[in-house]
Amino acid sequence: MSSPGDDSRSKRYDRQIRIWGAEGQSRLEAARVLLLNCGPTGSETLKNLVLGGIAAFTVVDAARVSARDLGNNFFVAPESLGEPRAKVVTALLKEMNECVAGSYVETPPEALVEADPGFVDRFDLVVATQMTEPHLLHLESLCRSKGVKLLAVRSYGLAGYMRASMPEHTVIESKPDTQVDDLRLTRPWPALREFAASFNIEALDDGAHKHVPYVVLIQQALESWRRERGGAPPSTAAERAEFKRRLAGMRRVGPEGVPMEEENVDEALKAAFHAWTQPSIPPEVRRVLEDERASPAAADAHTPGDDFWLLAAALRAFVANEGGGCLPLEGSIPDMHATTDLYLRLQRVYRAEAEAHAAAVEAHAARMLAAAGRPGGGVAAGAARHFCRNARNLRVVRYRTLAEEVAPESARGEALAEALGEEGTAANASLYVLLRAADRFHSTHGSFPGVLEGEVEADMAALKGLAQQVVAEVGASGAAAADDYACEMCRLGAAELHVVAAVMGGMAAQEAIKLITRQFVPFGGTLIYNAITSTTSVLDL
Amino acid sequence: MELEGRWQDLDKLLARDGNLVGPGFEPGPELREFLQTDCRVLCIGAGGLGCEILKDLALSGFVNVDVIDMDTIDVSNLNRQFLFRMSDVGKPKAVVAAERVNARVAGARVTPHYCRIEDLPPSFYSEFTIIILGLDSLEARRWMNSMACSLLEYEDDGSPDMSTIKPLVDGGTEGFKGHARVIIPGVTPCFECTLWLFPPQTKFPLCTLAETPRSAAHCIEYAHLILWSQQRAGEEFDADCEEHMKWVFERATERARQYGIPGVTYQLTQGVVKNIIPAIASTNAIISAACVLEALKAVTMCSSGLNNYLMYTGSQGIYTHTVAYEKDESCPVCSAGVLLQAPADATLQQVIDLMLAHPTLGRLMAHPSVSHGATPLYMRGVLEDGTRANLGRPMAELLRGEGVEAAALLTVNDKKLSAPLRVRLRRRRRRRRRAAELDGRAGCRGAHACMCMRAPRFV
């Protein structure tokens, strides 16, 4: 718990600790990031991470500060013209946050990766900026073999590209923006029934009546409904309307025959759907439970500190047994009109049941570990509870390799053809194809299309041809990249505009933070940013 | 002297023609020249968005930039306001931000204004080509919006006079989410047209705070809103004073203990009392850059522009959405004038009463002053004595020379407004139906069940 005597660190990071908590912050403060190439896209990405307080970064870049850098990168200064860019950027980034360690290597990233493959081992995340496809493919295979996460980012004219690569990323705290409260009124457990039944609502005086929590009102109405209808909750539209009329009928009427203002009744009417809405398992969580890794065999591979799949297996066992098809109860209830005492008592009823569910999940995990011959190597204290409290928020993101994405035999040609054909994604899918075509152009010409004045027209024809080649190769038959975008790619000739770099650097930093803190959900697939239409598309290729 | 090749990236965008450019785009070296000479940009705010906006402007070829911010630098700014250092804490944001950008980017001329937006006159605002808002309050946005819209003039045929349009670009963020929007007054919706985009603040009923607290936030608001005025009456609460915050925290902790409510922390106390919006560098970077890109497009037409609202969400994957919101044709702030119907024999006082009861005009004013062209009809302040007699006189008499049925364009001002509103008054003979409608509206103001007032969230 923080206190008024806070040190400057928690004051400094206050606005972000409110988002990812002390736990997220300490993960960030332990993270080591490697940046390849420090043009504006790389510098901006790292800027956002240094401000957030990562442990350390290393910049690898071979360039010297040029006039061009002074026109598009904030982390170089006029007086540093001609100096190693990696050195200058590192110094100016470090200046923003004395808690962050920074170093640099003045060498081309491609050469470093070649000469010292073990170099990436020292990092949790590699951010590769402005690298072409052949080099990214090489880097990816290295990162995969070393178990290091890779994030490739690129700004190209008015387009941006981002792609993460790692086998999988698991998330317990995905922190969805909105979520329906899980009150379990369709499946009340004995303690909840007992609590609700303990109210003699009719006999209460007016003051007490309007402070009965709405959960009790609905639960009582539902009990009597079920008694009358052989146990079934309201299901048809007419029944639901009738049930709501009953809830409305719980409102007291004043001496003049005027219905009284009772907020608990208002709340009960708004929450009436809890009487017939079954607790459900979100599709993303269902996929986690059905995943082959969520099996007792997870106990064999279990390592302390990474409980995800073991707990997923235990959760699966819980759902199939004690849970009767439902996830464990989270244990929290929304604020509702009630006296302090009644609200806290109701909260305890929910919390106690949630504790029981978490204990059952923990017991499943222990049994699995024992069966695997690893008793005593139990899950960390509180881990099962944390997992259960977030049961509806569990997410797994898996990433295909870039190699699979581009190889003709494994490329998803149909998906690309579809994206190129659909109005909402056609422009951005075109940019994807054109970026790959531009890399091919670079491989053969040694420069990007449209860079040289006077060659723009000729380059355009060549680029269109290469784009067709890309489309045909992956089997996206019948589709093509939009001509207007091919023109635009050549017009801008691989310009690295500061604003586009700042957008991409911002998005890349958000992704890096999600990967490092293990909170929120990183995107899977390939992200294209279109600065012409101010849109993004995530292509699953 | 400009270094050869410094702007080679930007020049491709500005000097080459393309198929996806804005209307009337004229590529050439003149465009960058314009950015570096005649073009003047105003940035409102030198905070999370402002720092980024200033950097992005300077590296997008803009030279003459002014920045307004009334705040000083706080330690909690340093996780995202990258132009500031620990040693700058306490200094004015606008001044330090301008200094840093000017020092880093050769040629940049950022001029700081360490003051409130209300401190500067309309003549100041009218000087700029475009205005970018990096604000965190709805009130400041509305003020700037009405300032920009007041500079707009309409032609006789009701179309906006293009030469008077002052475009606004607005950004906002919260956590991993944000928005960027382009407001072309008279063409695209202004803030007032889409006020519903801003959800109301959560407020706790005072009776809950006083009698049935159920959460840590209830205990904190009790200490902040009720105990403070009881126990430290006459002393103004200052959310930036650590002793005050500590006092609230301790009282809230005590109350939570009495009721058995967990969760009161110093951090939560600050969050609740100051209504802190969580903020991170990366989201500010994305939104600011999107804003400056749109400003660059609006000024040079180098690419097709955003029409007119971009929503960004980075918390669950990456998701963006653009929406073309529609103008409210009867918007009191940006339209050619709000139509107000009054009976033919209405007095000025009756017309003022109708304005106050009007659903959109009413929320914008409390004590309006009214003039017709250059003639003051009823003015608050020093002119009140001279104009009070007009209140009882019929409009027909005050607007001599106009026919009884004709519409008259009134200019209405109020302390609550940054700039006057246009009201098109139409007088007609019948009044009964209209008056009934207005009565019905006035009667439907909801009352809280406990009949207690809602606690104000901002103090």
TrEMBL record, chain A:
Domain THIF-type NAD/FAD binding fold: 13-534
GO CC terms of this entry: cytoplasm
Statement: the UniProt record of this protein carries the keyword Protease: no
UniProt-listed InterPro entries: APP-BP1 (IPR030667), ThiF/MoeB/HesA (IPR045886), ThiF_NAD_FAD-bd (IPR000594), Ubiquitin-activating_enz (IPR035985)
Record Gene3D superfamilies: NAD(P)-binding Rossmann-like Domain
Signal peptide: none
Domain of life: Eukaryota
Pathway: Protein modification; protein neddylation
Annotated keywords: Ubl conjugation pathway
GO molecular function, one term: NEDD8 activating enzyme activity
UniProt record, GO biological process: protein neddylation
Family statement: Belongs to the ubiquitin-activating E1 family. ULA1 subfamily.
PANTHER family noted in UniProt: NEDD8-ACTIVATING ENZYME E1 REGULATORY SUBUNIT, UBIQUITIN-ACTIVATING ENZYME E1
Functional description taken from the UniProt entry: Regulatory subunit of the dimeric E1 enzyme. E1 activates RUB1/NEDD8 by first adenylating its C-terminal glycine residue with ATP, thereafter linking this residue to the side chain of the catalytic cysteine, yielding a RUB1-ECR1 thioester and free AMP. E1 finally transfers RUB1 to the catalytic cysteine of RCE1.
Name this polypeptide is given: NEDD8-activating enzyme E1 regulatory subunit
Species in which this protein is naturally found: Raphidocelis subcapitata
TrEMBL record, chain B:
Sequence ranges assigned to domain E2 binding in this UniProt record: 340-428
PROSITE patterns: UBIQUITIN_ACTIVAT_2
Known pathway: Protein modification; protein neddylation
Alphabetical list of SMART domains matching this protein: E2_bind
Active site positions, chain numbering: C207 (glycyl thioester intermediate)
GO cellular component: cytoplasm; nucleus
Recorded catalytic activity of this chain's protein: ATP + [NEDD8 protein] + [E1 NEDD8-activating enzyme]-L-cysteine = AMP + diphosphate + [E1 NEDD8-activating enzyme]-S-[NEDD8 protein]-yl-L-cysteine
UniProt keyword terms in alphabetical order: ATP-binding, Ligase, Nucleotide-binding, Ubl conjugation pathway
Name listed for the protein in its UniProt record: NEDD8-activating enzyme E1 catalytic subunit
Natural source organism: Raphidocelis subcapitata
